[in-house]
Amino acid sequence: MLKMWKTEDSGEEWEMKLKLCGGGKFKKLKTSVVSRSPMKLWMIRAITTVLLWTCVVHLMSLGETWGPRLLKSWTSCYSHQDVELISVPAEVILPPKRVYKNNGYLMVSCNGGLNQMRAAICDMVAIARFLNVTLIVPELDKTSFWNDPSEFQDIFDVHHFIASLRGEVRILKELPPRLKTRVELGLFYSLPPVSWSNISYYTHQILPLLQKFKVVHLNKTDARLANNGLPLEIQKLRCRVNFNALKFTSKIEELGRKVVKILREKGPFLVLHLRYERDMLAFSGCTHGCNDEEVEKLTRMRYAYPWWKEKVINSEMKRKEGLCPLTPEETALVLTALGIDRDVQIYIAAGEIYGGERRMKTLMEAFPNLVSRKKQQLLLTSV
């Protein structure tokens, strides 16, 4: 029987003792010890490593669960003065991308004022959705009476516009490089669609052009889709674009909040869009109450824009048909008949009224607390 009583013995001493215990068994025992010792050491190290990592993982999970609660009572480790809490914005859940076979790319150039362009964008999104095409972010009118150089992203939140509609239609900021080169070479089709067309017009006339040329440019988009007789899905989408997807930029929204705040500080107010600007009167041919010089200026302006199809217009006939905007004088009568308090603030949300103070005199006498856009701008600069 072998007794190991001296652990500090060297290898040679162990070998001598083993020889004394039994010469025949020594070789067999030596071979077993040499072959098994490395294997046992490797297994012990591996098992120890796994156990240590398991303990670390459990300790980390426990720390995340209980650590903050325990540390709150330790002023030295956790205090609101020493730790700055960063508020994480709520995650925006985007709709899944709509998967469909792309029939081409639709470029759009809007025309008219902001209201007309906004309505046109709603129409073009609905048309792109119905035709299964990719819409390029619309280009805004820069050649109208207003000569506004603003791009789409200057007025609307372009990222929100694209992301909020990704479940309906694919929208890109610009054409892919290959197609952009084709457009630069003139290898695309451009046309003004027919006004007040039904969706079948776009199915039978525009879709074949998209499939043939891959890129179609609609260069006039105001009032190009009918209001009635459309599938309910299209009407819903137009509303969704107008009231959700077309969100103003943060700068414009902030300016709007400032305007409303200033008006509210002075009591109840009413916002009035007279639609009595020079371009509106020239386009419609409504010249009631204008003198001969003003009528002449409006006529010259109408002829200056070749895409305004109506040139010779009978103003009185148009007025009798109810196709003219209310004059400032008529607006004063309507507001009075509605029982509007004469001391209420009336904010004129429009451009320069054609005829100036002469045409606004009756309205100002009936409602002296008028706030023009120019006056509102002065108030904003003083804030």
List key phrases describing it:
single chain; 383 residues; alpha/beta; 5-stranded parallel beta sheet; 3-stranded parallel beta sheet; transmembrane helix
Question: Brief overview, please?
Answer:
It is found in: Membrane. It is a single-pass type II membrane protein. This protein is α/β, with parallel strands linked by helices.
Characterization of this structure:
It is built from 15 helices and 8 strands. It has helices spanning 11-21, 23-71, 114-131, 152-155, 158-164, 177-184, 199-213, 232-245, 250-265, 278-284, 292-304, 315-320, 328-337, 356-366, 373-382; strands spanning 105-108, 134-136, 171-172, 189-191, 215-218, 269-272, 345-348, 370-371. The strands form 2 sheets. A 5-stranded parallel β-sheet has the order 3-2-1-5-4, covered by helices on one side. Strands 6-7-8 form a 3-stranded parallel β-sheet. Strand 7 (345-348), helix 14 (356-366) and strand 8 (370-371) form a beta-alpha-beta unit. Helix 1 (11-21) packs across helix 2 (23-71), helix 10 (278-284) crosses helix 11 and helix 13 (328-337) packs parallel to helix 14. The termini are far apart. Belongs to the glycosyltransferase GT106 family.
